[in-house]
Amino acid sequence: MTKVTKIKIYFNTTYPLFLQGYHFPHREFAMAASPYSIDSAERKIDPYRKPEYALKPDGSPDDNDRVEIGPTALAFAEWEALGLEIPQLDSMREFRLQRLVQQLQQRDYGGILLFDPLNIRYATDSSNMQLWITHNPARACFVSADGYIVLFDFHSCDHLSAHLPLVRELRSGASFFYFESAHRGDEHAAKFAASVDELMREHAGDNRRIAVDKIEIAGLRALEKAGLEVFEGQEVTELARVIKGPDEIRAMRCAVAACEAAMYEMEDAIEAGKSENEIWSVLHAGNIKRGGEWLETRIFSSGPRTNPWFQESGPRVISDGELLALDTDMIGTYGMCCDISRTWLCGDVEPTTDQKRIYQMSYEHIMTNMELLGPGVRFSDITKKAHRLPDNCIPNRYGVVMHGVGLCDEYPSIRYREDYDAYGYDGVFEPGMVICVEVYAGEVGGKEGVKLEDQVLITEDGYENLIRYPFESRLLVP
Question: Which of 95, 161, 178, 336 has the fewest CB atoms below 10 angstroms from its CB?
């Protein structure tokens, strides 16, 4: 008769300081030194035992069969070679939750309801069909002002978040959009609102003030019918996300390094006779094989398709002597956005005078504007002092001079002076913000255009450019 040994698995769930003392009745966790701690009454050699050191550098389990996504061995090896510090996921998650809680408490909101998948990622670090969920809002997350998180996940998906100790409850019922509910949308929304109402009463008492980032019409009406006072949640999440903690910055440095490695592979693939799509696909592959997630856009073009901007990668075959321009818009490792733009010259040829002129102008634009950054600088000051493009490039200008970045493009947007009256707003740069400084320069009716962009960390005494990827030396004027 074979003897069966019982195995108990405990997950490391050290609570952040601001959550200590709260009671979480729906999940009971035991503390352990590592994500795998085996308790056996009788054991000499346990083949199931994970050694104490079986962790990846970011603190996640080194388990080949784990559910959790994350960087690959290739990414970790590249980061080690670069001497990069690896983020610790537990502390990064706790920092983000604390940022949300602070924003809620400042506004006297009892909680926030999140439908945007990137806000859900920020609050929980859970990932589930991110792109599909952007247009099929089947997931939601409730965060109370005392830091209690309830994740309403897609059906049969509880296992995807089992490794996340800050998620105290897993529920369902957030799917009341038409594809899922059809004529029963109001019915399903009412059930969901009742669940949210229950959570608000349990964790906020008499406080009926709840923030919501995005929601279907039926859901909004159901929340208001339940007696909840709904407030703008995007302000809460954008202002929480705007300051990056130490581990978020480490995660971004790692993601940027992975993005740059994929960009080198893409640049190496440039060859006359290949299509834009063939070259563009190399960036996708480089991202995925390092544990990155997706690309937000497909803005990569060549030759005459570089002017005007925003033309998407297509079947056009490239030729020597043409410019190729891209905006990575990459959601990379740890879900961090790497928003880098470069313009290359195809082939072993000399650039034209016009190509050099417009490239040099673009380079001076972002370098000049970068020098304006620092803590305490006002957004409006950037708009007033920003490098001025030639008049024949202004109609084709990019939408912003700069913008924030984190899990995606984020607050703030810094406008050109031509757009400030219609779209601009003011604010102040603070340490911990990450800003993308960018430009598109293409003359009206011009043959080609240039796109450049770097990602910059605001520090206590200035700024640090996080991007090490070189510019096209053949296009820079000596």
Answer: 178
Q: Which two tokens stand for residue 352?
A: 């034209």
What does the mean pLDDT of the chain come to? 90
Q: Which residue has the tokens 């003897």?
A: 3
Spatial CA neighbour of 295 closest among 248, 341, 332, 333:
332
Peptide bond preceding 308: is omega within 30 degrees of 0, i.e. cis? yes
Q: How far apart are CA 214 and CA 113, in angstroms?
A: 8
Q: Which of 169, 144, 174, 146 is nearest to 158 (CA)?
A: 169
Angle at the Cα of 318 (from 364 to 467), degrees rounded to 5?
A: 35
pLDDT below 70 — which residues of the chain?
Answer: 1-53
What gap in Å lies between CA 125 and CA 166, rounded to an integer? Answer: 9
Nearest to 474 by CA among 294, 351, 290: 351
For residue 411, give the H/E element and its range: strand 409-414
Beta pairing partners, 86 = none
Q: Taking the domain 246-475, which CATH number applies?
A: 3.90.230.10
In the chain, what is the straight-line distance between the N-terminal and C-terminal CA atoms, in Å?
Answer: 81
Cis peptide before 412 (omega within 30 of 0): yes
Residues in the chain: 478
Q: What is the DSSP secondary-structure string of 261-317?
A: HHHHHHHHT--TT-BHHHHHHHHHHHHHHTT--EES---EEEGGGGSSS-PPP-SPB
Outline which parts of the chain fall under CATH 3.90.230.10: 246-475
* Domain 90-241, classified CATH 3.40.50.10540, yes or no: no
Q: Phi/psi at 158 (nearest 5 deg)?
A: -60, -35
Other residues' Cβ atoms within 10 Å of the Cβ of residue 317: 12
Neighbours of 341 (CB within 10 A): 25
pLDDT in tens, 426-451: 999 999 999 999 999 999 999 999 99
The boundaries of every CATH 3.40.350.10 domain in the chain are 90-241
Using the structure block, give the residue that is written with the tokens 């007696």: 227
To the nearest 10 degrees (0 to 180), the angle between helices 217-225 and 185-204 is 50
Helix, strand, coil fractions of the chain, as percent rounded to 5:
35, 15, 45
> CA torsion, points 49, 55, 60, 63, in degrees to nearest 10?
-50
Residue 88 CB neighbour total at 10 angstroms: 17
pLDDT of 85 reads 98
